[in-house]
Write a structure and sequence with these properties.
By secondary structure, this protein is α+β, with helices and mostly antiparallel strands. The chain is built from 9 helices and 16 strands. 32% of the residues lie in helices and 28% in strands. The strands form 4 sheets. The chain has a 5-stranded antiparallel sheet, sandwiched between helices.
Length: 301
């Protein structure tokens, strides 16, 4: 097969591993900087050009689209879909997962466990918003934040009111969520491929920090999850429409709750902790499922 890999940085661990796994399986892979792609929006024959070349003949596309370029990256991926190229994750599914509010609303509608969450732009009563999610301590998030950026733990009522007022003063919409104290600064990353959780790890925040992101100094350890946690992760992935994703779960007193569904999960931490060839599993999934024009959305939405 000819596979296009949408990745801006050729030196990233995940990019290198996916290329190596695909080539080891006998496939031809071409890395494309998604921002260097430009499109011919035509009803008769939609196309993508790259550095003066008309891209054609690809059987599958692997999107590794950073959060900062979601809008343009999804547009390029949508163009591949319109050309009949099989996407590992579809453009609509990626944009769903990147919109934190939309993702939570979809998960809520499907009955997936979530932390109690409030959303506000210009609330007349901030005290009532805080009360709605159970009071302080609570977590306040900017909709656009990634890798723990734009996430604040407010430990008191006064601190919560101050932070919310500050964010709203910047004309930013905020999510306010209950703080899962019993998680003790840890979460579980479930790596989902298709309808299976293929690997898991627990990420523990460093001392004095509540965000467990590995980019922020968190540590990862191998963990065995419960059948309920496994079911929750797969249900969340299916709700987003993602074939490959990382589902981040907290263990709460009222069962597993989903914090985020990541459409471009990093491979380094999960491969090192689990010892599994996750990149190879992704390529195997593409081999089994890639067919011309096999997208649910055909670039719509």
């Amino acid at each position: 097969m000819r596979i296009a890999l949408l990745s801006r940085n050729p030196n990233l661990y995940s990019t290198r591993r996916l290329i190596a796994a695909a080539e080891a399986a006998g496939h031809e892979v071409r890395r494309l900087d998604v921002l260097r792609c430009y499109m011919n929006i035509a009803s008769a024959k939609p196309g993508i050009h790259y550095k003066g070349e008309n891209l054609a003949g690809f059987d599958a596309v692997i999107p590794r689209i950073g959060a900062s370029v979601t809008f343009y990256g999804a547009a390029v991926l949508r163009q591949f879909e319109m050309m009949g190229v099989y996407p590992l994750n579809e453009s609509v599914a990626i944009t769903r997962s990147r919109d934190k509010l939309r993702a939570l609303q979809l998960l809520s509608r499907k009955g997936v466990g979530l932390p109690v969450t409030g959303f506000a732009n210009k609330p007349d009563d901030i005290e009532d918003l805080i009360k709605m999610v159970g009071g302080a301590p609570l977590v306040i998030k900017l909709l656009q934040g990634t890798q723990g950026i734009g996430v604040v733990l407010a430990e008191t009522q006064q601190a919560a009111e101050s932070v919310i007022e500050s964010f709203l003063g910047l004309k930013a919409s905020v999510l306010v969520q209950e703080y899962i104290r019993e998680a003790a600064g840890s979460d579980i990353r479930c790596f989902v491929i298709g309808d299976r959780v293929v690997a898991t790890m627990m990420r523990q925040a460093k001392d004095g920090e509540f965000r467990s992101n590995l980019h922020r100094g968190g540590k990862a350890i191998l963990i065995k999850i419960t059948p309920t946690e496994r079911e929750t992760a797969v249900h969340a992935a299916n709700t987003m429409g993602l074939n490959v994703c990382g589902v981040d779960i907290l263990r709460s007193n009222h069962g597993p709750v989903v914090m985020e569904v990541n459409s471009s999960p990093g491979l380094q931490g999960i491969e090192e902790v689990s010892g599994k060839d996750i990149a190879g599993m992704i390529i195997e999934f593409i081999e089994k499922n890639a067919k011309s024009g096999k997208t649910r959305t055909r670039g719509k939405g």
